[in-house]
Amino acid sequence: MSRDVVRTEAAPAPFQGAPYSQAIKANGFLFVSGQLALRPGEQGLVPGGVAEQTEQVFANLRAILEAAGSGLDRVVKTTVFLQSLGDFAAMNEVYARHIGDAPPARSTVEVAKLPSGALVEIEAVALAD
Fold first, then answer.
1. What digits encode the pLDDT tens for the residues 25-77?
2. Computed over its alpha carbons, how large is the radius of gyration of the chain?
3. Which of 109, 103, 96, 108 lies closest to 126 in space, CA to CA?
4. What pLDDT score does 41 carry?
5. Number of domains the chain is built from
6. Residue 119 maps to which CATH number?
7. Please, what is the end-to-end C-alpha distance for the chain in angstroms?
8. DSSP H or E run through 29
């Protein structure tokens, strides 16, 4: 069994030095940790609402997937965490633009709170080479 840590400077480092990897490539799959609307090297969330945050989340996901030799077109499952399901439509509009015509399986859940006051966090499982 293979298990490789994926790390890129094109996406934020693990949140506040927490003990997790951006992603793990294992046995043909890539497991991407939940991404927030943080820009690499910056502390605060991107300004704006859930749409702007979702755009940055997808920039981070794309960077990690590409660093591992995968891409958004190879995502098979996502989990979306929203601070409020009232933001579902705005998040979903951005999500649909990025995920393509053959969307992966997805779960969306409302949570009480996300790190840094984020409105959205998305994790993904993708096919890896």
1. 999 999 999 999 999 988 899 999 999 999 999 999 999 999 999 999 999 99
2. 14
3. 103
4. 87
5. 1
6. 3.30.1330.40
7. 14
8. strand 29-35
